[in-house]
Design goal:
This protein is an alpha/beta fold and 249 residues long. The protein has a single domain, classed as TIM Barrel (Alpha-Beta Barrel), CATH 3.20.20. Helix content is 24%, strand content 20%. It contains seven helices and eleven strands. Helix 1 crosses helix 2. It starts with a strand and ends with a strand.
Length: 249
């Protein structure tokens, strides 16, 4: 049996494909900063988009840092949902579904910021003009169900935030919603969150940086105790099975 070890993880990081991210958020700099912060596992979660995940994965090759492809998906209800996959294949299946349900608008780089696809060195490939900053017309429960069917993790992001947080927007936890965990603010401990919201009693609670600029990468993290940095192992840790577990740093 493989030995279980601690993996410092930040599963909510944006790149220059997110209009609200700084221009410094390019693959080699993200990888370098993650390593300098002692991280072993990160997820790339741009708004409604996955096109830069492969470049960050390539930039991390051979460094000891595992990069998972993902997305911060905004649902029809304007709730943010982290969608984290174990490989590019399911992410590339999920992306066309999301793209087909985006609002029929173009991004205004003067208003929201540009959306750049880059390569592993951080060099410009193209500018994305789709409007990734708004909700896609897929309901929350359907999105979570689809992501999990693809083998991914579905994790509502910053759930108590008034804007785009599940509890902040909806005011309650939908009874039919099934997810793998929920992301809480570092200012709200899991115990306090469960005291405030009884619906969180049985839901694993994690924290991440939601980094949009380099010096916030890894400043908020979760420590996972795993046999390997994989989606399967993360799911085991979130469920507390087979000796896997996690704790908030």
């Amino acid at each position: 049996m493989a030995a279980i070890r601690a993996y410092q993880a930040d599963l909510h990081i944006h790149t220059v494909l997110s209009a609200c991210a700084e221009v410094e958020m390019i693959p080699p700099l993200i990888v370098a900063e993650a390593l300098s912060q002692g991280l072993y596992l990160i997820a790339i979660t741009d708004h409604n988009a996955t096109a830069n995940a492969a470049a960050v994965m390539e930039a991390a090759r051979g460094t000891g840092l595992t990069v998972l492809p993902g997305m911060e998906f905004q649902t029809q209800e304007e709730v943010d949902l982290l969608c984290i996959f174990g490989s590019l294949a399911p992410a590339l299946i999920w992306q066309p579904e999301v793209s087909a349900h985006l609002l029929p608008l173009q991004n205004d780089p003067e208003l929201f910021g540009p959306q750049f696809v880059v390569d592993a060195e951080g060099d410009f490939v193209r500018e994305e003009l789709s409007f990734y900053q708004g909700p896609a017309q897929i309901p929350l429960e359907e999105a979570a169900r689809t992501v999990r069917a693809l083998g991914g993790l579905a994790i509502p992001a910053h759930i108590t935030r008034p804007a785009k947080g599940l509890l902040g927007v909806l005011g309650l936890w939908p009874s039919a919603l099934h997810v793998d965990a929920a992301e809480v603010s570092p200012n709200l401990s899991p115990l306090e969150a469960r005291q405030r919201f009884s619906s969180l009693a049985d839901i694993p609670l994690i924290t991440n940086s939601d980094a949009h600029w380099l010096d916030t990468i890894g400043q908020i993290r979760t420590i996972f105790f795993l046999a390997a940095p994989t989606i399967t192992e993360l799911r085991r840790a979130l469920n507390g099975v087979e000796g896997r577990y996690f704790r908030i740093s």
